[in-house]
Amino acid sequence: MLLTVLIPGLGHVYLRLWIRALLWLVLYVTTTTLLLPDGATPDGLSLDAFLAAGDAISLEVTALILGVLFICLVDAYMMANHVNRRVRQTDGDTPESCPHCRKELDSDLTFCHWCTTELDSRQK
């Protein structure tokens, strides 16, 4: 999600969802290009220039651009969950859980490394 905050669509690139990444990037760039007024670009790299550019942007435009970013963040989060579920299902090596604490077991150990419950061969 941090990648999506930096550049909308970059989180989707990390997930290798190329078309979705391109669509989010195009949507964000198009939205900002069409909605930002001419005075919204800073004239220099000073703090005063950035404050003056920020004053030129209305609250509605800011809310719309941040809304597009927020929806992109939610989509990246949902897609990451979907990809993770799909990987777990197709792996065939779904992690087993401890019968005592229900946490994920390490297949190399004969005990639960969370609660130290001994496991016999049929539980593992």
Compile the SSE list and pairings:
Layout: H1 2-6, H2 10-14, H3 18-35, H4 47-55, H5 59-91
Summarize the biggest pleated sheet.
none
Structural Rg: 23 Å
Structure summary, number of beta strands: 0
Shape: elongated
Distance between the termini: 35 Å
Helix and strand sequence: HHHHH
- Total helix count? 5
What do the pLDDT scores average to? Answer: 85
Structural classification? mainly alpha
Q: How many domains would you count in the coordinates?
A: 2
* Uncertain residue ranges: none
Strand content: under 5%
Fraction of residues in H or I helices: 55-70%
Brief account:
This protein has about 120 residues and is an all-alpha fold. It has helices spanning about 1-5, 10-15, 20-35, 45-55, 60-90.
Describe the protein's architecture and organization.
- With 124 residues, the protein is mainly α.
- It has two domains: 2-91; 95-124.
- 56% of the residues lie in helices and 0% in strands.
- It has five helices and no strands.
- The chain has helices at 2-6, 10-14, 18-35, 47-55, 59-91.
- It starts with a helix and ends in a 33-residue tail after the last helix.
- 10% of the residues are buried.
- The model has no long low-confidence stretch (mean pLDDT 85).
